[in-house]
Design a protein that fits this description.
Elements lengths: L1 H15 L1 H7 L8 H13 L3 E5 L19 H10 L3 E5 L2 H13 L4 E5 L3 H10 L7 E6 L18 E9 L2 E6 L11 E7 L4 E2 L8 H4 L6 E7 L7 E3 L16 H5 L7 E4 L1 H13 L1 E7 L23 H7 L14 H4 L3 E2 L4 E10 L19 H26 L7 E4 L2 E4 H7 L22 H13 L11 H31 L10 H10 L3 E5 L3 H8 L2 H11 L10 E2 L2 H10 L4 E6 H10 L5 E3 L4 E5 L2 E2 L6 H13 L2 H16 L2 H18 L11 H6 L11 H25 L3 H35 L1
Parallel strand pairs: 1-2, 1-3, 3-4, 4-5, 9-12, 17-18, 17-19
Antiparallel strand pairs: 5-6, 6-7, 7-8, 10-11, 13-22, 14-19, 14-20, 14-21, 15-16
Length: 767
């Protein structure tokens, strides 16, 4: 869109500016050899559009038709438009640069024809970071020989073509990326002969896929740091370059720093780099990444201006001092502004790891057979069962208690006294005397208390007597007995037995919401690798990630950056210590691998939080990125990348002990079961995982909840007794005196009995 606006503004300027009319006015003259040759050369490229830079100070432009060594711009444009090519001409250098920047932002390939000496413009093009594989700069040199390498150096990734004119109607095309060695050297790739067949071959330039298919032993510099399982690095004497204080360094300090070569002993990305080197015929040298980190944006300048430079290994790529960067390098928008990424080498996801769910307190095991939301309903059921039982029994007694007078009968509003009627008519009217209430129809005493204790003892599976013997009470007793025996007691005992066999554990912290609650309520601490893509996600992610990042900064008030760790492996070591509740966020594959090292059963891996991709990082505008992508895509389609990851895990498992290997197999089996949720095998854990779970024997420590309940019950009974004594205000002295006298009588009686038995046994022998 910006490119279109630039073209529209340029056309308006050309229409309104008289100076432009003079430069673009077409006067008929003989067609020059230069115009014809340049038109055929541009036609050999088949560009979508062409940008022309014709500075007024250029010595190569002339309006004189008799000068055959110069070019008439209007003549060249006329011939170019006959071939239906879009073109735009610039007379201002700044507008030309802005036009190229707009094309690069839109990922639009542009071909630029420059009528000016390259030694002045090449430096400015590289300073403006316009050197890119999508931009081709064609310099019309016009001399017999190309410029000397000491005078002009076209460094990668700049694509430059220099056109020379050794004789009339003969032009030679030199290209700086005709060789994959990366050395700034112009090579003859094509030529044009006006007296013969024109261009020697088409297309005009060799393709990048052909040139960079074989690097011919080129040596690349690859920054690396210890990050299992991607790279296993052994540092020489644990040396670290001066970039550990690196967030305040500038790009110039990258160039003035000598980087130590490190020894890489293995790793998944090390295997990948070896395979790429074998396939594309290049060599590589490992250098230590500054700060031993991937890199992050530098802090703003002292003036408060934003700084778009990076530290770490990404900073080396950005400054052009490195060629590749591997090792779980995640993609992000901020990083894409400084470097470019290849086809992804790992389709990963973000996750965090915590300690494995710990065993819950066994003192409360008697409460766990039912969930917390069930206990209130269960308690209410037991509490209201007694009153309901009382109501069912007492209602019929309430109905039978209606008293009716024997000598009065109500007929509407009239009251008839039957005793008077009987006196005056003794032989005519016979009155049937109403039967008085039977003594058995009276309500039993203390029925409510008896019903409550009956239901309590029934639910607690104790022996009890029915408070009433009518059919309603019997039917309700049967209902209560079935509910207490089969619904509550059996289910409760079965659940309690299973929990005693396999003790319950904490709920796993496997989501961001649970992690946030754990950090707020339980004091969990979340750690992240410094200058990693996971840190960028926390800083620039959604609202939940930002809340977690704010909680991380509040973990230690004295040091707001105390949550940063050197590597994911260091974070797993912190969790393995088990001194505090800790969690580490990072790539799921990296966490998974390090968890296997320290025992799979000791850690809990969360669910997938977000999708993240890792790729090979290269410089912006890297000319061989397409060739690299082609090789990586073939590896991905052939399953080679997955096999390399699996091989690295197997190599690590051979280095672990037997117990750790078994734990890693269990974790791998559970991961596969979680990944295949649609299959029937994923509905239940693997069989060998179930068999390997420890089944502990029943011990007194598991039964301590019952003893605690007994102690609480005894204490409650004692308190109830004290309250009863205080409420009734009993005479304790009199009661104690009565108890003392009673025990004294019993003791004297026991003494008399013992004396009598002694005399009966030993008296005959003495006599």
């Amino acid at each position: 869109m910006q490119a279109r606006n630039c073209v529209v503004v340029l056309r308006l300027w050309l229409l309104l500016c008289p100076l432009a009319w003079a430069k673009l006015s077409y006067s008929p003259c003989n067609e020059s050899d230069v115009s014809i040759a340049l038109t055929q050369i541009i036609n050999g490229l088949k560009p979508r559009q062409l940008a022309i830079l014709a500075l007024p100070s250029s010595k190569l432009l002339s309006a004189d038709c008799d000068n055959a060594d110069t070019i008439q711009v209007d003549d060249f444009l006329q011939r170019l438009h006959r071939l239906y090519y879009k073109s735009v001409i610039f007379y201002d250098l700044e507008l030309f640069f802005e036009y190229i920047e707009a094309n690069l932002l839109g990922a639009i390939e542009c071909v630029n024809l420059i009528f000016h000496e390259p030694d002045e413009l090449s430096t400015r093009i590289q300073e403006r970071r316009l050197a890119h594989r999508l931009s081709l700069f064609i310099f019309y040199w016009g001399a017999r020989h190309p410029p000397n390498a000491t005078r002009v150096r076209f460094e990668e990734p700049m694509r430059a073509v220099v056109i020379t004119r050794p004789r009339r109607k003969a032009f030679r095309i030199y290209y700086n990326q005709a060789s994959p060695t990366g050395i700034s050297q112009l090579r003859l790739v094509n030529w044009y002969d006006g007296d013969n067949l024109g261009l020697q071959k088409t297309p005009l330039l060799p393709s990048a896929a052909t040139v960079y298919a074989n690097f011919e032993g080129r040596v690349f510099r690859v920054p690396v740091f210890h990050s299992p399982p991607w790279f296993w690095v052994s540092y020489n004497n644990d040396s670290s370059n001066g970039s550990n204080s690196g967030s305040e360094d500038t790009l110039d300090e990258f160039e003035n720093t000598e980087y130590n070569e490190v020894n890489v002993t293995g790793g998944r990305d090390h295997r990948l780099l070896l395979l790429l080197a074998q396939h594309m015929n290049f060599q590589f040298v490992y250098i230590e990444a500054p700060g031993r980190t991937q890199g992050s944006l530098r802090a703003p300048d002292y003036n408060g201006e934003a700084n778009d430079s990076f530290t770490g290994g990404i900073g080396l790529l950005q400054s052009g001092l490195a060629d590749f960067f591997l090792g779980d390098v995640g993609l992000s928008w901020e990083r894409r502004k400084a470097i470019e990424f290849s086809f992804f080498t790992l389709a990963d996801s973000g996750a965090f790891a915590t300690h494995a769910p710990r065993r819950l307190n066994e003192a409360l095991a008697v409460m766990r057979p039912f969930k917390l939301d069930i206990w209130p309903y269960l308690i209410l059921t037991i509490v209201f069962s007694g009153p309901i039982f009382y109501i069912i029994i007492a209602l019929p007694y309430k109905w039978r208690r209606r008293q009716v007078a024997l000598d009065v009968e109500q007929l509407g509003e009239l009251c008839i006294y039957m005793a008077y009627i009987k006196e005056i008519t003794p032989c005519v009217l016979r009155i049937r005397r109403t039967r008085p209430p039977h003594p058995t129809d009276e309500l039993p005493p203390r029925l409510l208390e008896r019903c409550i204790w009956f239901t309590l003892r029934l639910f607690l599976k104790q022996s009890c007597h029915e408070p009433c013997h009518d059919y309603r009470a019997k039917f309700l007793t049967i209902v209560y007995w079935v509910a207490a025996t089969y619904v509550l007691a059996d289910v409760y005992s079965a659940q309690l037995t299973s929990q005693f066999a396999r003790p319950a554990r904490e709920a796993p912290i496997n989501t961001l919401q649970r992690l946030q609650v754990a950090m707020q309520q339980d004091g969990y601490r979340l750690y992240v690798e410094k200058e990693s893509s996971s840190l960028e996600m926390l800083e620039n992610g959604t609202e939940l990630f930002r809340q977690l990042y704010a909680l991380m900064q509040q973990q230690q008030p004295d040091d707001h950056m105390a949550f940063l760790i050197d590597s994911v492996e260091a974070g797993i070591k912190l969790i393995a210590d088990g001194r505090e509740n800790k969690a580490v966020i990072g790539g799921r594959e990296t966490l998974y691998f390090n968890i296997q090292q320290y025992g799979a059963k000791n850690f809990q891996l969360s669910q997938k939080l977000y999708t993240r991709y890792s790729a090979v990082a290269v410089q912006i505008g890297c000319p061989f990125l397409d060739s690299l992508n082609d090789v990586l895509m073939h590896m991905f389609e052939g399953g080679i990348l997955d096999k390399m990851t699996t091989a690295e895990y197997e190599a690590q498992s051979r280095m672990m002990t037997k117990d750790q290997a078994q734990q890693s197999k269990e974790l791998a089996a559970s991961e596969n079961a979680n990944a295949n949720t649609k299959s029937s095998e994923a509905k239940s854990p693997p069989k060998h995982v179930q068999e390997n779970e420890m089944i502990s024997a029943l011990n007194l420590r598991m039964l301590q909840g019952a003893f605690i309940g007994l102690a609480v019950g005894s204490l409650t009974a004692a308190l109830t007794l004290l309250l009863e004594l205080f409420y009734r205000r009993l005479n304790l002295a009199q009661s104690l005196r009565r108890w003392r006298l009673r025990w004294l009588r019993r003791w004297r009686r026991l003494q008399r009995l013992l004396r009598q038995h002694t005399v009966r046994i030993f008296a005959p022998n003495l006599g």
